[in-house]
Amino acid sequence: MHINDVAGVACDLRKYQRSKNINSVLMAHNRYSMCRPDLCLHLDGLFGVNFELLARSRLFLDVDVVHVHAGIRRTQFALPMLKNRSKAKWILHYHGSETRMGYGMAHQEVADAKLVSTPDLLSWHKSAIWLPVPIPEIELGAANRNGPGLEKIRVGHFPSNRSLKGTSKIVHALEPLVASGRVELIIVEGKTKHDAIELMRTMDLVIDQLSELRIFSKVALEAMAQGIPALSSYDREIFPLDCPVIPVQSEKDLAERVDGMIAHNIDEELRRRSMDYVRRYHDPRRVIDQLDEIYSEL
Fewer CB within 10 A of the terminal residue: the chain, N end or C end? Predict the structure, then answer.
């Protein structure tokens, strides 16, 4: 049983576990999930969340693994209580903000194992295992709009939070290229996942973020899965050596990188390497196989 959904990761894990005939269910607040949970939570606040979890305590007795996403908040006292009553093995799966901002770092004693979605989180969770985020978009195939002699490119930016993603810096960096008519910058917000991916497939490049964070997000992986090169400010040393995300560390750097890609067209080899990277590390079936091994060792 997956608890909570972050960026659709729990939804995707449930989907591909079921494809392997694993009885997988999701309990989540319908308002915060990217798919329809099997077990919907409806209440918010200190008492609401804990009341709903305790009211469903019977469910925790009937599962083999409880897989909690985004850690546990200090006020979520129902979860450690349920851990004490259940015979299930418990996994705490950390995805980012709950760790970096600290709000989901309580009650770690309930974990029989810990997972992280990005390698940088290993510096907070020393004993955790990096489980790459599953990217179903590999099934869509290449989206190739670029061609010889293309004079204008479409650059997409898909911020979940403008301040965290550095949206204003990205806009400022590309202003001269947009003004010259060489770049069309499209900021995609407030769309369903399906509509956002459909728009992404019309892009030549995707800029993930320009921030102090040392990572790239799921957006970059979704783009690369479709052969669309991604740019982001990230620490190359904490990712696999073959990672093809184009590193940018400043507004000047970003503008020069995009300008250079316009001048020379987008390298088809980069498109291929982008797709290969996602298939190598983020193919949902491979991720599920890795997760199965982690479950079997609990």
Answer: C
Q: Which superfamily, per CATH, for 2-134+283-296?
A: Glycogen Phosphorylase B; (3.40.50.2000)
Measured CA to CA, the distance from residue 66 to residue 81 in angstroms comes to: 13
Q: Phi-psi bin for 86: left (phi > 0), alpha (psi -120 to 50), beta?
A: beta
pTM score of the predicted model: 0.91
3-state secondary structure 214-233: CCCCHHHHHHHHCCCCEEEC
Provide the token pair at 294. Answer: 């982690």
Alpha carbon distances (Å) from 206 to 149, 150, 174, 277, 281: 20, 17, 13, 16, 20
Homologous superfamily assigned to 138-281: Glycogen Phosphorylase B; (3.40.50.2000)
Contact call for residues 69 and 2 (beta carbons, < 8 A): yes
